[in-house]
TrEMBL record:
GO biological process terms held by the UniProt record: regulation of transcription by RNA polymerase II
Pfam family, one: zf-C2H2
Organism: Larinioides sclopetarius
Localization in the cell: Nucleus
Domain C2H2-type span(s) in chain numbering: 38-65, 66-93, 94-121, 122-149, 150-177, 178-205, 206-233, 234-261, 262-289, 290-317, 318-345, 346-371
Name this protein carries in UniProt: C2H2-type domain-containing protein
């Protein structure tokens, strides 16, 4: 491998005459330093070493004289070829003294070191936001300029960052290159795999500063934090209703469009939200994944479990605004409320007897027809 790289370097010739100027600055002359600067004839960028100028010049010519013997991939720089070659050998010569993690690339190793020191060397001139990586700063800076140079060939959607476009394009190809070693579940985004893997390890690295509740995912922590601040940053353009969660806003919008994009594979019934579809699907499987810690009773959905749990705690969070009577379940409150709302309407036309529920009135009617 080393021999092929060396031979490629020796064979490297340039047909283009590069203007090289040797400049000694006044300060260096005063100090007796005879330093030669090498200047690019195309963009006038200066270098202290000719090898650096040669490397830079290939960015203009797109020349790639170094190629990998194993896969044929070409590179403009010898160090890039060496770095690439480690993907074949799986060599990781850079090791972190703090956590032992190893890297094949020195740049990635240096970036990783900042995760321990929390060092953020790159700051935005506009808003002073700080970043540990230079390309994160560049990506952030485009949010101020609203520049979106990367567009999807399939749907035309534009992105400020190339990696975001790459991730987005998988919604068209349905590509899921990241799979869980434990259960085999596949994901289109690497961060989603990392979050999923914590369901196996039960790791919850993100905790709420207010109540101490722990979460496996930072976005879930952010969503939870709004329950303390009552912040609702997402609002509906149609009716103005506000939501603390973006996914809840998306589901709400379906109530205006009457769109039901989620359908049951078993019976074909359609739903406006995925949550409702998942809850419905349990009626086919008879699955009851939510169990009471006190008595062990199982339930098909979380809301029924919460309602049941109040029977143990004697908690009655739902109260009637008319008479103040309290209930442990909302549907019991709704049923009770009919006794106030329909007091005059639920009466027998024949004998004027009154009823709280329509089904009781209908049953009563049959006593007259049998006479």
């Amino acid at each position: 491998m080393e021999d092929s790289i060396e031979s490629s370097e020796k064979d490297l010739t340039s047909d283009v005459c590069v203007k090289v100027s040797y400049i000694a600055t006044d300060m260096q002359a005063l100090n007796g330093i005879d330093t030669k600067f090498f200047t690019c004839g195309i963009c006038t960028k200066e270098f202290s070493q000719k090898v650096n100028l040669d490397r830079h010049y290939r960015t203009h010519t797109n020349e790639k004289p170094f190629s990998c013997d194993l896969c044929g991939k070409e590179f403009s720089d010898k160090s890039c070829l060496k770095r690439h070659y480690r993907t074949h050998t799986n060599e990781k010569p850079f090791s972190c003294d703090t956590c032992g993690k190893k890297f094949s690339d020195k740049n990635r190793f240096n970036v990783h070191l900042r995760t321990h020191t929390n060092e953020k060397s790159f700051s935005c001139d506009v808003c002073q936001a700080q970043f540990s990586q230079k390309h994160h700063l560049y990506r952030h800076f485009r949010t101020h300029q609203n520049v979106k140079p990367f567009s999807c060939d399939a749907c035309g959607k534009e992105f400020s960052d190339k990696s975001h476009l790459k991730v987005h394009f998988r919604v068209h190809t349905n590509e899921k290159p990241f799979s869980c070693d434990t259960c085999g579940k596949e994901f289109s985004i690497k961060s989603h795999l990392k979050v999923h893997f914590r369901t196996h390890t039960n790791e919850k690295p993100f905790s709420c500063d207010t109540c101490g509740k722990e979460f496996s995912d930072k976005s879930n922590l952010n969503r939870h934090s709004r329950s303390h601040t009552n912040e609702k940053p997402f609002s509906c353009d149609t009716c103005g209703k506000e939501f603390s969660n973006k996914s809840h806003l998306k589901e709400h919008i379906h109530t205006h469009t009457n769109e039901k994009p989620f359908s049951c594979d078993t019976c074909g019934k359609k739903f406006s939200t995925k949550t409702h579809l998942n809850r419905h699907f349990l009626t086919h499987t008879n699955e009851k994944p939510f169990s009471c810690d006190t008595c062990g009773k199982d339930f098909s959905n979380k809301s029924n479990l919460k309602a049941h749990f109040s029977t143990h705690s004697n908690e009655k969070p739902f109260s009637c605004v008319t008479c103040g009577k309290e209930f442990s379940r909302k549907n019991n409150l709704n049923r009770h409320f009919l006794t106030h709302a329909n007091e005059e309407s639920l009466s027998c036309d024949i004998c004027n007897k009154e009823f709280s529920y329509k089904k009781n009135l209908n049953k009563h009617y049959r006593t007259h027809t049998m006479e």
